[in-house]
Hints:
32% of the residues lie in helices and 19% in strands. It has helices spanning 15-26, 48-58, 76-79, 85-94, 111-114, 128-136, 157-164, 203-210, 251-267, 298-314, 330-341, and strands spanning 4-7, 31-33, 40-44, 67-69, 99-104, 119-123, 141-142, 170-173, 184-187, 194-197, 214-215, 243-248, 272-277, 288-293, 319-323, 346-348. It starts with a strand and ends with a strand. The mean pLDDT is 94.
Amino acid sequence: METKIITIRENHIDGSRLQEAGDIIRRGGLVAFPTETVYGLGADALNREAACKIYEAKGRPSDNPLIIHICRWEDIYSVVSQVPQEAEKIARAFWPGPLTMILPKSQQVPYETTGGLETVAIRMPSHQIAAKLIDLAGGYIAAPSANTSGKPSPTLAKHVITDMRGRIDMIIDGGDVGIGLESTIIDLTVTPPQILRPGYVTRDMLERVLGTMIMDGAVTADNMEETPKAPGMKYRHYAPRGEITIVRGKPEKVVAYINREAARESHKGEKVGIISTAEDLKLYRADSVKNIGSREAEADIARHLYRILREFDDEEVTKIYSEAFEDAGLGQAIMNRLLKAAGHRIVQL
């Protein structure tokens, strides 16, 4: 398959070129497009054959649910059988934006989109290219991240091109994304509501709107047994080719341990990469030391994580060591992605 690549910027949207992308989705094709979180791989959410094409292109297990993206609140009533008051509160506070709600699906949504579940994941992105494309495509785009299943999610079009060229109909190059981590996912079919995947919208932010909620055990545990209720819960995700080890402890002990292990692995012939915060960058010695950002700026760390993991792949790094991050606020989302990428390989000092 020949993949067409077009460039559109959010501050200057070319309607005719975006219409072409919308027409591809209406015909059952696949288009990768930017959102404020990561690049998505879009298909008609109400077309079971199109949903199956997403799984095929990504090499994604078919029981891993897809998220339906909408661009108008009222469209939720076509794909959800019951819209609770909590959903309306969440939408008023965080939509459009990086938050996904799990709700009971309507009969209009095929099981191919929901991974066989009776629930459906819904999001309204704030990125203007995404919103316009959803409208032009008919209002309902199923879109997981536009990467080969298991690899780091794409935050630049070149990442999508690496993974998806020749597999999909079109890639929209919209530049760098803003957030760099997938949306927060909250399950509103249970009481109290449950966070299935942490993200930019934090637990504290959600509790200020809805009150007490709980965190699914799979957020911090290596839970590979149950049928996933939302994307990113069951299977190894976000992983580069190199083996990642996360190291947690007092900063001076972390630096000493990582440098010692890096030297040992390098002596064995491994190519070693280190993910460091700006504060510790000059203390490390390895083949490739990456500055993920300051601990005082978690948003920068989140935005840089997947890019760094992909750079290690480009550099053929085989062993990766990373500092750990806080387990609160946005740091929880960062650690969730790192733990998944590392297969929950973590050293506590």
